[in-house]
Amino acid sequence: MTAFCRAAPWLALALALAATPALAASGPPPGFVLSDDADLAFTSPDGATKLEQYVKDAGDWEVKWQVWARRGDQMTELKPEQGYGAGFRFTADSQWLVRMQKTGSGEQDLFLYHAENGTFVGATRKSLSDLAWAYFYGRPETKHFAKLDFHISANLLKGTEKAYRWLGVDWPNNRYLVISLAGQYDKHPKNTIMKGLGGWQCRYDLKTGTFDVPEIFAKENAEALKWEVKRE
Questions:
Q1: How many CA atoms does the CB half-sphere of 119 hold within 13 Å?
Q2: Distance CA 127, CA 124 (A)
Q3: Which first-to-last residue range defines the signal peptide (predicted)?
Q4: What pTM does this model have?
Q5: Which one of 4, 44, 100, 204 is least enclosed by Cβ atoms within 10 Å?
Q6: Which of helix, strand or coil describes residue 6?
């Protein structure tokens, strides 16, 4: 009896371990293969995080892509899963990450992630592109702008890592993102080949989570609202 009592705690521990489900291995599920396209591999400025893109081709044009952030032995998926590979840009302090996600021919969404607990997590409930479009249509001068039909694209202007100094501005480092919105619609005069929105720009504040339009964008934005390509 005494021997059994001494062994009981060890037996209980063994039974508990057997009943505990094993932790799932970190990384993409079976069927996803790491892309060998060098243009789809990205590393944070501090060198701590590497982005790997995995693809699964199930045939019949059913292709799925997953993005995983690797930091040491830890891997975390950057959702959502998509049908195409993506481009990425980090801020210089490696704290913010923007995903430039192709969604179709001439169409693109943006997703924003923030560094937390040694990895990157989604920073907004909706995609950054959805928030930018909502801001666009909510402004007095654009809220009645015709609804776009195709080639709807949200783009991240280059210069994130250097605070857009090439624009001639002196904004704080790691503070702003410049987003350009574009698209086309079907209804236009017969003497026009294309008509729509031609690169309307706004600024997103990473600190406050708000949008604005700096004065330096005013002239180009006015032209973007009247964008069209006439027939010769």
A1: 17
A2: 7
A3: 1-24
A4: 0.85
A5: 4
A6: helix
Q: Which pair of structure tokens corresponds to residue 119?
A: 């990895």
Site of tokens 């481009």: 87
The answer to whether residues 98 and 177 touch, using CB atoms and an 8 Å cutoff, is yes
Q: Which residues touch 163 (CB under 8 Å, ≥6 apart)? A: 92, 169, 171, 172, 173, 174, 175, 176
Question: Could you read off the pLDDT of 44-65 as tens digits, one per residue?
Answer: 999 999 999 999 997 777 899 9
Tokens at 49, concatenated: 């995080």
Q: What is the helix (H) or strand (E) element at residue 177, kind and residue range? A: strand 176-184
Q: How far apart are CA 226 and CA 163, in angstroms?
A: 29
Could you list the mean pLDDT of each consecutive 10-residue stretch along the chain, which spans 232 residues?
46 42 64 96 97 90 93 94 97 98 96 95 97 96 90 97 96 98 83 85 98 97 90 71
Q: Count up the domains in the chain and report the number.
A: 2
Range of the domain at 31: 27-123
Whether 203 and 213 have beta carbons less than 8 Å apart is answered as yes
End-to-end CA distance of the chain: 101
User: Has residue 14 been placed in a domain?
Assistant: no
Residue 231 burial (10 A CB sphere; 0-12, 13-18, 19+): exposed
Phi, psi of 161 (to 5 degrees): -70, -25
How far apart CA 207 and CA 38 sit, in angstroms, is 32
Do residues 138 and 219 share a domain?
A: yes
Specify the long-range contacts of residues 229-232, CB closer than 8 Å, at least 24 apart.
229/192, 229/193, 229/194, 229/195, 230/191, 230/192, 230/193, 231/191, 231/192, 231/193
